[in-house]
């Protein structure tokens, strides 16, 4: 099931996405409005609205986004880094989250903004110290993410809070796909990023150094994960600059496409 969060006539709701359409074309897609929330038992209301008539929002409003650095060997190498012995984790604040179609605001304190296409894990239930065999039970589904990074600030400040945590630095969407599981991800899903239609990144989740199970186990050893929390699983090689006016799209096989435009901070 594809679960979207959206607004219509000033109201916010979740809905199940039905139908098939080409990327960027919502004309054949409709939303069956969910009665309740997707983190508990829910029913489909049978009330349907065309996707083209609503505004898609970030599929979740996470309490926290836990991101993982250097989880693809080729990406680590392209920035002159080794694959770490243990996962590098960092936070992106909830205020960094935006949805599909929302602008990425170029931060005034940077001159080198980069895209990073990533698979995002959406947690479905409160959990801590999750055993490997139970990981799939605590996952609601997966969505696309862009770990937008002020690369010059990251390199200069060493701590990544400002470089990766500024407002609009975490686009998520377009919806949550609940039909995937860690085994399918380990087998390999294509992760692609285009800028103004030009391919910049093309990798596979099979190249992740540490699997979804590894990451959920590692992170939940230290902290409680809440429904709607998001884990970013790292980016493949090919990261590069974004400029004001660019349109950046992250596409993940089996999920969909997340598109955002870069604007000047006003």
UniProtKB/TrEMBL annotation:
Gene Ontology terms, MF aspect: acetylpyruvate hydrolase activity; isomerase activity; ureidoglycolate lyase activity
Keyword Lyase listed: yes
Enzyme class, spelled out: lyase
Keyword terms: Lyase
Domain of life (superkingdom): Bacteria
Keyword field contains Lyase: yes
EC number annotated for this UniProt entry: 4.3.2.3
The protein's name in its UniProt record: Ureidoglycolate lyase
One of the GO biological process terms: carboxylic acid metabolic process
InterPro entries documented for this protein: Fumarylacetoacetase-like_C, Fumarylacetoacetase_C_sf, Rv2993c-like_N
